Amino acid sequence: MRHVDPHLLGKPKDVAKTIPLSLLGQPAPDVxxxxxxxxxxxxxxxxxxxxxxxxxxxxxxxxQIRDQRRLPPAAGYPVAVREDGSVxxxxxxxxxxxxxxxxxxxxAIRAAYSKKGILPPGKERVLVTLLQPRTYHVVVVxxxxxxxxxxxDVTIPGGKRGTGHxxxxxxxxxxxxxxxxxxxxxxxxxxxxxxxxxxxVSLKAAPPGPARLGAPLxxxxxxxxxxxxxxxxxxxLRSPPGVPVPFGPxxxxxxxxxxxxxxxxxxxxxxxxxxxxxxxxxxPRDIDLDxxxxxxxxxxxxxxxxxxxxxxxxxxxxxxxxxPSPSLLSVLRRTPDGGRxxxxxxxxxxxxxxxxxxxxxxxxxxxxxxxxxxxxxxxFTQTFFNFSLSWQAIHNRFLTxxxxxxxxxxxxxxxxxxxxxxxxx
Length: 425
Description:
Layout: E1 17-18, E2 39-44, E3 57-58, E4 74-75, E5 77-80, E6 86-87, E7 95-96, H1 102-116, E8 126-132, E9 135-151, E10 154-170, H2 176-181, E11 194-203, E12 228-236, E13 238-239, E14 259-262, E15 269-274, E16 279-282, H3 291-297, E17 328-334, E18 340-346, H4 347-352, E19 365-369, H5 372-384, E20 388-395, E21 399-406, E22 417-422
Parallel strand pairs: 9-14, 15-19
Antiparallel strand pairs: 1-13, 2-5, 2-8, 3-4, 6-7, 9-10, 11-12, 11-14, 15-16, 17-18, 17-19, 20-21, 21-22
């Protein structure tokens, strides 16, 4: 086992910790900044509204359902911010308001009307409020199951797999943190502890260059040269302490058309055979599992004389000298080039020295067998210590005594007169 390439032994997961969830969000701004698709309430005296006309007022209902967003009261006529970040108002040219606060936008509109001489000096009565903040339409796809079923200490998904959500996130809440919280929270145990963001496609003349974590990945094979190239960002939710997270603040901010994907980890399983109960078992997601722990997880024989607890019926200790426990564990592991190698682990040494054990990786096949010396010891124990002797010790006209000696492997050892049968003269 010590001669195995370290790259094939896998990386431990226990050292990773959940990252601060605040990294998945964006800081709240000091003031709301206007951008395209915001809807403003604008009132300009004698231009948009007169003194004798009641000013339109908008207020949220007094009673609202749960999770319904309450907007502050607003007044004025609705005017949308256009794609170029400007607002179109009567009698003046479009006024740019991109990145301005409500107070700054109000001053810009007042200055535009004053410059045209439409509003007399001293009577530039202008009111700007926010009727409807801009929202970002995001799709969240989660490949988790709706429920889980525990079978033999193994959690397997139950019910429907996968859910989809159409989420409208308001400005300054259009981030991964709010998208997860509105669709069920952090990933379940049957999904990877990571978030994949698939950004809107763009047309490129050539495939992108080498990929890095947190940047556009290689072009998928299904996209031809010059076709739409999606941008994929991988955000892990666990990271070793002291290691910088492989994504930036702009990576977690979502835009309309983005897809947030939580992928199921169906491939993270290992298989057992030989003297272990055959089956397929799911690996823990966030903790390490070595081969010794894997045997106990599947209820295999471990330092118990090859007793299988899955079919156990009776005493835990077999009468007699007993059998040696099998200790030859072969781990069939896939290599990056598609082949397989066999890693042999001596369980007797692994129990004493942690350096003699290895971590179980997805796709591993664990086969437990006996060492040649263990097989020979079991053969001699079952062959030469498996006998039964019986002879007549006493016999006369009044009684008969029989001595019965059984080997420990058959029944609990006993030596003595088993029965006394009176005879007729």
